[in-house]
């Protein structure tokens, strides 16, 4: 180990100090590469944060869409149940039930023609 250190010191002083110039240039190159590496890492961290924020927004949107679809499904199930009950009553020739059935059909038609938000 001492021989390696002595040889390294001899090379630094050989050829009029040219070894020192090489050592300084290598040190500057290492410093430049270190700073450049830090900038790259900071950019990657910022990009990762932006991606995480976008994924969170997408997740919230998906949850809202799922809730809206579930609500609409419940409403449609209620409408189907009501329509089938009314249809059974219409088959029994109940005039009032026939009016209800026509009202439900009219409302369903209105829902289909209404513009979606």
Descriptive report:
This protein has one domain (2-113). The radius of gyration is 39 Å and the shape is rod-shaped. It has helices at 2-91, 95-113. It contains 2 helices and no strands.
Please outline the major beta sheet.
none
End-to-end distance, in Å? 78 Å
Unreliable stretches covering 5 or more consecutive residues: none
What would you call the shape?
rod-shaped
What is the total domain count?
Answer: 1
C-alpha-based Rg, rounded: 39 Å
> Count of DSSP E strands?
0
Mean pLDDT: 80
Number of helices: 2
Order of helices and strands: HH
Q: Structural class of the helix and strand makeup?
A: mainly alpha
The percent of residues in helical segments reads over 70%
What share of residues are in beta strands? under 5%
Keywords: Membrane, Transmembrane, Transmembrane helix
Transmembrane segments: 12-34
List the topology elements.
Elements: H1 2-91, H2 95-113
Keyword list:
117 residues, mainly alpha, 2 helices, 93% helix, 0% strand, rod-shaped
Give a summary of the structure in a few sentences.
The chain is mostly helical.
């Amino acid at each position: 180990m001492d021989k390696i250190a002595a040889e390294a010191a001899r090379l630094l002083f050989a050829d009029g100090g040219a070894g020192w110039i090489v050592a300084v240039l290598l040190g500057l190159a290492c410093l430049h590469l270190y700073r450049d590496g830090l900038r790259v890492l900071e950019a990657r961290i910022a990009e990762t944060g932006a991606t995480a924020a976008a994924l969170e927004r997408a997740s919230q949107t998906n949850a809202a869409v799922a809730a809206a679809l579930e609500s609409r499904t419940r409403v449609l199930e209620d409408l189907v149940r009501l329509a089938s009950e009314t249809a059974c009553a219409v088959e029994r020739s109940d005039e009032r039930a026939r009016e209800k059935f026509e009202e439900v059909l009219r409302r369903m038609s209105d829902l289909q023609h209404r513009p979606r938000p």
